[in-house]
Amino acid sequence: MPELYRLTDKADNELSTVNYQLSIGNRISDIVRSLAKRIFGGEKITFDPELLTATADGYLSAVKKGYKKDLSEVDYDSPDFETLKKITENVFQFSASKDFHILTDMTNALKDGSGKLRSFDDFQAEVDKMNVKYNGNWLRTEYNQAVAASQCAARWTEQVSRAKSMPFLQYHAVMDSNTRAEHAALHGVIKRVDSDFWDKYYPPNGWGCRCEVIQLPGKNYKETPDLDIKFTKVDSMFQVNVGKKGVVFPKGHPYFMSQCATNGCPLKGRKLADGTLKEQCKGCLQGMGECEKYVDRCKEKAALIAERRQEYELYKNDPDYLNVEFNEETGGLKAWHKDHKTHPNDIKTYNINGEILKADDLEQRFFNRAFKNGHKVIFRKEDDNLTDLDMYLDDVLMDLASIAENVKDYRSAIGHKNKQLKKYNRENNTNADTICLYFHDPSYWSYNKLVEGIQYEAKYRTIHIKTVYVFFNNDSDIQVYRFP
């Protein structure tokens, strides 16, 4: 990475903000030090929502500084909105990739060069060195890149909007002692706004680049012939029009590339025998591969976890809810209303794989398993007649039924739940249409039995069940079935 940022020149210092580094950099460093304790304790952490938020917030502040506005300040149908939307997504992708990079380095630092496990003090010292590197020196360069690229993206959006009356653009380098020769060579070049030239040479054209493009008034200009241009080498990472593509961090950055090396990536071991990249990885760097999907999932997960963290605080401080828990890593959230009715009169027991369980036990097992699997499960208040529905599962209102025996069909459970939905909808003037079937023993599950049960109920009664969630007592995800 020091080699990557080798072209950051003295102008960098003019752009950097001391207060920024003290506030945002220290915030990120504090989170990293906290994560170091968990990693040393044995946790495998490749993603942390708090770290992602802190990292992205710093770059987004740079975007606002450069663009002079952020996504919340522009109309959704404006050109600025589309550009800032893409830039915001790019910032989150870059932040998630950078976080993955430092978390991986931290895990690798648990052992020294000889493979011996470090003491915590030695490990913490290594992490502190990483903080200086990632969240001090490199962060400054990345922040300045975000400012400069956002400035250029804002100019491009404005220049495109005025292209009919001002169809020409001219490349301007600063032309002082700090200007790179390859940038000075482009100084004065004139091309039309729609020229392919700007796809490759629109600034910034490197770390710390201070070049800009100005728009020329009127039509009294001519394009610079290609034969008169001293085409110079621009790092492939920067051969992109930041405004047109909506990026402040180019896709060729090693943070993105290193994502390819994750254990879950199907492109791991991406280099061929001659050391070149596989074609899939080249596509990946252009935003079309598995790494982009991974980062998108990280971004979505971070947003979900942040939302559930806020909900957790509400439930935790509500005296009507018991057994409230939240898991920062999975996003799991659970809360049980103190007036949720269980089954006090149901004394029937079930022998499931040697365990003697009652209906109450199965409901509690589902509650804990759904939380463990990263779902939000909120058991609701019910009246004495049990006419309410049991729960919200991931914000969907539904009733729960446990299939506790290897029965020949599910007609009884489906019929009972269909009746309950009908009564609830009639009394509350609503249209709830979802139930959840819980299988403590997954071997009791049969898709054919589900379909037969729905068809049987529909044959004799109005069917209110439109969606069925199927949930097992294991780590597999929920299966969702919808019926017309």
Residues in β-strands, percent: 5-15%
Query: What class would the helix/strand composition place it in?
Result: alpha+beta
Mean pLDDT: 84
Radius of gyration, in angstroms, nearest whole number: 29 Å
Sequence of secondary-structure elements: HHHHHEHEHEHHHHEEEEHEEEHEHEE
Going across the biggest sheet, name each strand in turn: 4-5-8-9-10-11-12-13
Uncertain parts: 7-21, 258-290
Number of domains: 2
Number of strands: 13
Indicate the overall shape. elongated
Number of helices: 14
- Helix percent reads 40-55%
- For the termini, the CA-CA separation is 56 Å
Major β-sheet, in short? 8 strands, mixed
3D architecture notes:
The two termini are 56 Å apart. This protein is α+β, with helices and mostly antiparallel strands. It has two domains: 11-297, no CATH class; 318-482, Trna Endonuclease, Chain: A, domain 1 (3-Layer(aba) Sandwich). Helix 2 (18-40) packs antiparallel against helix 3 (49-67) and helix 4 packs across helix 11. Strand 10 (396-402), helix 13 (411-428) and strand 11 form a beta-alpha-beta unit. Helices cover 45% and strands 13% of the residues. Residues 7-21 and 258-290 have low confidence and may be disordered. The chain has helices at residues 11-15, 18-40, 49-67, 79-108, 120-161, 181-184, 197-201, 242-245, 254-259, 279-285, 290-316, 359-372, 411-428, 447-460, and strands spanning 168-172, 190-192, 212-216, 321-326, 333-337, 349-352, 355-358, 376-379, 391-393, 396-402, 434-439, 467-472, 479-482. The chain has an eight-stranded mixed sheet, sandwiched between helices. Strands 2-1-3 form a three-stranded antiparallel sheet, covered by helices on one side.
